[in-house]
Amino acid sequence: MAKKILIIDDDPEIISYLKDVFEEAGYDTVGAKNGVEGLEMAQVHKPDLITLDMDMPARGGTLFYVKLRQEPMLAEIPVIVISGVGPRPPVLTKNVPVLTKPVDTEKTLKLVKEMIGD
């Protein structure tokens, strides 16, 4: 069974692009346009990994991350931040990689494979 990645980003083009990249690499994907929808999708789909934009309406990445870590069934899901915003938010632990936009496909896929395998 393919591993599942939840892509949370308010830019539909980024979601579409990352879905294509991850699905071509053999992963299943699901997308969410903000942190509220992202938390709902995480609860329903129990992804193996989450990619997270930080600057979004209706609950940005920081609040999503805090809520995710408070949910016992979701707290251990690995997160990769893919964002165009500045420095690492203090709420993110050191084991949360932060990649900047524009997305480096090769680097992103390498990191995903390191974190969850094929």
TrEMBL record:
Sites bearing 4-aspartylphosphate, chain numbering: 53
Q: Which UniProt keywords apply?
A: Phosphoprotein
* Domain Response regulatory: from-to ranges: 4-116
| CDD domains named among the record's database cross-references | REC (cd00156)
The keyword Nucleus appears for this protein: no
Q: Which InterPro entries match?
A: Bact_response_regulator, CheY-like_superfamily, Sig_transdc_resp-reg_receiver
Any one Gene Ontology BP term: phosphorelay signal transduction system
Q: Does the record carry Glycosyltransferase as a key word? A: no
Q: Which domain of life is it from?
A: Bacteria
- Read off the PANTHER family from this record: RESPONSE REGULATORY DOMAIN-CONTAINING PROTEIN (PTHR44591:SF3), STRESS RESPONSE REGULATOR PROTEIN 1 (PTHR44591)
What is this protein's name? Polar-differentiation response regulator DivK
Source organism (scientific name):
Fundidesulfovibrio magnetotacticus
